[in-house]
Design goal:
By secondary structure, this protein is mostly helical. The protein has 6 helices and no strands.
Length: about 160
């Protein structure tokens, strides 16, 4: 096994030395104009097909407000239905059904988490939930924008 590794290292060193001895090749003078002509022939993408950071600023702002509004509206809609999330009834129904035997520890944890969620949703004002969902939407859009920016910057360095 060591002989095989030694042979691979010798081959790699020989290939490296042989490639370094080759003269540098220059691109033909006509290459740049041909590439630029081919790029000019491509149709420009509409703004909505480009990355989000390349959208017009007013469309970025509009999309952010729309996304945050949708998240807030979903939270505002779910607030009156917080009583439907009561998992104590779900546990009782599950325990009464035949053929289903829940694991007591896991079911206890899930019931406790569900009851905590019901208490929080029942005692928190609707605007707090909507604001929290709006903040989550803002954080999502920020991560999306930063990720796109980092990707574009790293693609430019290649």
């Amino acid at each position: 096994m060591n002989d095989n590794r030694h042979n691979e290292e010798k081959l790699a060193a020989w290939a490296d030395q042989a490639l370094k001895q080759l003269p540098a090749r220059r691109a033909p003078a006509t290459l740049a104009p041909r590439v630029l002509a081919a790029l000019a022939k491509q149709p420009a993408l509409p703004w909505y097909r480009r990355p989000w950071l390349n959208w017009p600023r007013h469309m970025q702002l509009l999309s952010f407000v729309l996304f945050a509004g949708i998240i807030g509206a979903v939270g505002w809609f779910l607030l009156p239905h917080a009583d439907a999330l009561n998992l104590a009834n779900a546990k009782q129904t599950l325990a009464q059904s035949e053929g289903v035997r829940p694991v007591s520890v896991a079911m206890g944890v899930l019931t406790t988490l569900g009851n905590a969620l019901v208490l929080v949703l029942g005692n928190v004002k609707g605007w707090v939930i909507a604001a929290g969902l709006g903040v989550l939407g803002f954080l999502y859009c920020s991560c999306l924008g930063l990720g796109t920016a980092c990707w574009r910057l790293s693609a430019g360095n290649r």
